[in-house]
Amino acid sequence: MCIFNYESGSRDNSPVFKRRSFIKTLIAFPLGLILASSTLSWANPPTSEVNTTGLAVTDDTVTVGILHSVTGTMAISETGSVQAEKLAIDQINAMGGVLGRKIEYIQEDGASDWPTFAEKSKKLLVNDKVAAVFGCWTSASRKAVLPVFEQYNGMLYYPTFYEGLEQSPNVIYTGQEATQQIIAGIDWVVKEKGAKTFYLLGSDYIWPRTSNKIARKHIEKLGLKVVGEEYYPLGHTQFNSVINKIKLKKPDVIYAIVVGGSNVAFYKQLKAAGIDLTKEKPLLLTISVTEDEILGIGGENIEGAYAAMKYFQSLDNPNNQAFVQAFKDKWGQDIVIGDVTQAAYLGPWLWKAAVEKAGSFDIDKIRAASPGIELTTAPEGYVRIHENHHLWSKTRVGLAQKDGQYKVVYESEELIEPNPFPVGYQ
Amino acid sequence: MRQRSNIRFMSRQEVLGYVLLAVILLAIIPLSLDVFRLNLIGKYLTYAFVALGLVLCWGYGGILSLGQGVFFGLGGYCMAMFLKLEASDPESTKIQSTPGIPDFMDWNQITELPWWWEPFRQLPFALSAIVLLPTLFAFIIGVAMFKLRVGGVYFAIITQAIAAIMTILIIGQQGYTGGVNGITDLRTLLGWDIRSDSAKVILYYVCSAALFICLLLSQFIRYKKLGRILVAMRDREDRVRFSGYDVANFKIFVFCLSAMFSAIGGAMFTLQVGFMSPSFVGIVPSIEMVIYCAVGGRLSLLGAVYGTLLVNWAKTIFSETFPELWLFAMGALFIAVVMAFPNGLASLFKRYIEPKLPAWYSGKTAGLGASIMRTDSSKETVGKEALEEKNRVVSKPISKPETVGTMAPSSDEKLEGGVYVD
User: Fold this and answer.
1) Is the peptide bond between A251 and the residue preceding it cis, with omega within 30 degrees of 0?
2) Is the ipTM of this complex over 0.90?
3) Taking CB atoms and an 8 Å cutoff, what residues of chain B touch A234?
4) pTM recorded for the entire structure
5) Pick the CATH number of A61-176+316-393 from 3.40.50.300, 3.30.300.20, 3.40.50.2300, 3.60.10.10
6) Phi, psi (5° rounding) for residue A62?
7) Count of domains observed in chain B
8) Nearest residue, CB atoms, A206 vs list B35, B107, B320
9) For B329-380, what is each residue's pLDDT tens digit?
10) Which of A41, A131, B256, B342 gives the lowest tally of CB atoms within 10 Å of its CB?
11) B57: CB partners within 8 A, 6+ apart
12) Are the Cβ atoms of B107 and A151 closer than 8 angstroms?
């Protein structure tokens, strides 16, 4: 429309054209000054080039959002993620930021309440125009914010291992989806420990149920047997009846996906019922207890249990040693680092790499640039973003120690491909 | 005739109060806030429906319900079920193993739509379910409780238990209800995109209008004999019973009405926020809703709206400003309000602002209003049928301040509830 007017104006050489060209020179003059000064004083690409969609990017800063629960029942789990994300942002800023811009963050509290997550994510995207959001922990909070991110085209870096069955163009999943955590772990316990029978146990919501469904399918594919499967509400503290059933059925493996505060009761009651996990009769394999949860459970109560994760604080590699040191220097020497905390730490780094590859903060360009991004400095080792927005990562099995740490007893040879919609496991 | 009923319906000062609220809600807020903030206010207003119901039920009827979240949730879920079915057409759910059913059912290995979801495909059914289902549920609870003369603290505890049971039920049946996640990702209402900015503005106005209808209905009830019986029942239940009233029926009525208001609020919430989850059904949100009502003043219909807006606005602002300490600020706010004004913001208004008001619009109108009121109510009782003769014993004295004083000795709070002079 505009171009047409302009052309018709120029053909007729009407007063309109003269006025327009006058306005043009008037605008061009200061604009040229700004451009000249920006190329002189900064080597950074101009903001108008790297930010075409009105995000909160200035010539020397870029604003991102951190959205976790720092109050309420989930605060204990999510605090580690907040700390990891702040650490990563500090480190990136110390290295000169992203495209020459320092990262500033706006932190919002999801308050362990899913509608609050939705409200705050909308605030971050609509009001603050943040360039990326690092946040959410539970699946419920992710489900609540997902429509917001898709509607306003934001980018969320989600750190938690979760049930899969999702692949949003507006989320990068830096934790494992269910098959990455489960299949290699069960293969290991079958091969190394000769397990034949399994008892599946979990908290009653979508992640444990979906995970156990995948575990059951895989166990049955291997020609082995599931002898029991039970779920308890979140926050449940009476596990005596299931412990009695376990004693009766004598499975080789208790496959436990108990979540949050229930863990404390569960492991204490197991021990009180005379099941000594260090004897491995039955053996306990979990995918829900990280070093963070052991702080609450107590190392002496869970000693001898196995966990299948992608990261343990005790991983012995230079990346991890540097990470653990930096984390302790910033947040205190007594702190422990769990699987999700490490995955949260990857978020800002993966975003930085995507922005630099795209040469832009635009969400659409970051999305296009993300698949194939690799990080060689990740504490867990090498990771790469898959086409489906999840990470290729290794599966590791750790043995819980009395001091609350895991000893790594197994590590998959190859990176395991993320497969959020596993055919044959649904 | 019309003139007279208007006067009886609300006092001049109350008319001003409603007009002021209307100006604030319909003009000042929409004009001064961007769509994001407007949508937040719209969300707060949906809680005001619950607070309004609580004013009637608790403030006037003396029935403290700690389970209003149940009705809010039921209304919200009915709306969400309709919207979810619309969002789950076979085309947009084709990646599922069973296309055409809501996504969470597919995740839980359910392969066909449960029969009780089926009617929610029809909007008229869904809309009537929003109103009727929670009301029916409240009716059942009401009959079971009030006919057996369960009241006071026991009733509060039982409603709280119902809220807990409801949450566990919804979370436990996640294949049918969406579990902890709730019903998410709602997109359109009969093809109209409810997520767009224009839809948010329209829904805000719809929500405000619905709130006004509920407010006026409450105001109407309050000024009718029914409202006076409620107050009498709250203050001296036995006397009302001995006067020949079936107290239980009045309690059931007001409880059902507050449930219906909550359910409408819940449905408006789902429309404006775009999802529904069990976090609105449980004990904590139900108690929170009582707090909105208490902060506003449990005897003031308008106070409930202002209280809800204030508490939620403070919650948003505090948590944005101090993400790690905001709960302390909220706690301080509640303590301060309860300590300084036990009857909420409305009492603040009554004590400090109201006495100055007559100076604004000349004292004579106030006196006139009061005299009309009195003649009016006496006419009313004189003109009644023989059947209602017995009612006079209660209805007549309550319209006079002195008599209320004897019924409910030395309490400012009760006087405020019982006296309708301006």
Assistant:
1) no
2) no
3) 171, 180
4) 0.80
5) 3.40.50.2300
6) -135, 135
7) 1
8) B107
9) 888 888 888 788 778 888 888 888 777 776 665 544 444 444 334 334 433 3
10) A41
11) B63, B65, B254, B255, B257, B258
12) no
